[in-house]
Structure prediction request, 428 residues.
Amino acid sequence: MTMSTRPLPGHPQLHYRANDLYLEGARLSDLAQRFGTPLYVYSQAAMQQALAAYQRGLQGRRSQICYAVKANSSLAILQGFARQGCGFDIVSGGELQRVLAAGGDPAKIIFSGVGKTRAEMHQALAAGIGCFNVESEAELEVLNTVALELGTRAPISIRVNPNVDAKTHPYISTGLKGNKFGIAHERTLDTYRRAAQLPGLKIIGIDCHIGSQITEAAPYLDALDRVLDLVDAIQAAGIAIDHIDLGGGLGIMYDDETPPAADALWQALLTRLDARGHGQRKILIEPGRSLVGNAGVCLTEVLYLKPGEQKNFCIVDAAMNDLPRPMMYEAYHAIVPLHAGSSAQQQTWDIVGPVCESGDWIGRDRTLAVTPGDLLAVLSAGAYCSAMGSTYNTRARPAEVLVDGDQAHLIREREDIADIYRCERLLP
Ligand SMILES: *Cc1c(COP(=O)(O)O)cnc(C)c1O
Prediction:
């Protein structure tokens, strides 16, 4: 047996050794056998490397990286980032509770989102979070009231909509005028003036987040320029701003995308920042997908093959409830066998799940050599997969395993069916 390894481009820590797929030192077929399928598996080293690239890019600057929890909110993943000194970008009181349960530092938490409730504001103020990213003028007034009720001042940043095109999928583009997010560029100065009058608020920053799965540096540079124009105007009005938060959104390689590396992107952005005389400023960023997306895979077993006249279907035990991105965004995820070199004939398959919806597909027109009982890995499954999962069709959520070297830690037990209906009640 040869021990030569074959890496998979864009997927750090994932490689074939002989014909078996490994994540770090763990053979994935062993994990599938031990924990069952469908199964999410994450690489600690891949997540640490992704964070380290941002840390390198921001080295020597006053900065705070805040992992966007919604990309993957598993407690052990949050815990790993917290141990590396990372902060967190949350969008709900539930995410706040998760971050605290995972040992995150409240002072490094920022709270984004267009629909924060009073109860969530109260909860976040009581926890002592670092910053509220306020998304509307109405929210500003409510936050002021809640802070005064608690006898405190809420640290705030106003999320501006810089009206730049992130050139990404319409569902994940957030920085254009037609989006529900942030405050229009033209309204920003007035909104800061209003905030400065409210005694329950303390202005500390400005932020934007222009979209997700961005694969070019240009939209970031445009957004930075637009935000710096505003910072200059706000400061000229006598309102001090300490930090600039440029949000998240950096893309990953799902197929043949070539996003800039995090450190290279930040070098370009910091050069622009310096050139415009803002080099001293504290920088916040909110990366989600780019920290976890290519650190995770979803393992699934082939149940049945159903060749047909128009389409050949390969039915697997993972479905749209486990992995909703293909159905939601027609997203592409590479699908590879856990054991390469099958003797089956290569054919073109649609990889579909058991859920009773035609939208329940995971991959279309894939050339694979498969037989029932084979195991497949759906790649790039670390971000917005498990976190967007549901129990539709009363399917239990998969187990999750975190690989660290040759250690495999169960970080989420496979859900029990009774767990799914625990909150339901029969009629008397
Ligand atoms: C979703 C989101 C992020 C993270 O986006 P990614 O594309 O996963 O990096 C950051 N900030 C805000 C406000 C978000 O809504």
